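Fold this sequence, please.
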Amino acid sequence: MAFLIVPIAILAGILNTVQAGANATLSKATEQPVLAALVVTGANALVYLAAAPFLGLGWPGAGRLAQVPWWGWLGGAMGGAYVLAMILFAGRLGAATFTGLTVTAGIVTSVVLDHYGWLGFAQHGAGPWRILGCGLMIAGVALVTRF
């Protein structure tokens, strides 16, 4: 199964970009961005339920729930904000610019999170190569956005 991790991550990146267009189109066609976001959320729930027989689904005990840090409960809200931003702005910015901006922001943020080991991530120092990689991502987005 480990050999599938990278191809699945690549597929997820492709789907993330394609979904921006699909979601923006849904919003534009219905002229209802919140409705489009709710449809996206409903479709997400269906995918999760379809995966449940393979990945498991259960309700943890109160002790487990109490161990979750306060920020651990905010992921869904962050995902909702991302989907709403995608619905509202991906169509205006274009796929390359929107995806470039969001992926680059994610890379830079992830390097900072890794460097400090924040939010439960393993600590990986932000050495010169990682910093250069972030700089190249920023330069790449600038080129994609400009031309």
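The chain has a mean pLDDT of 94. The chain has six helices and no strands.
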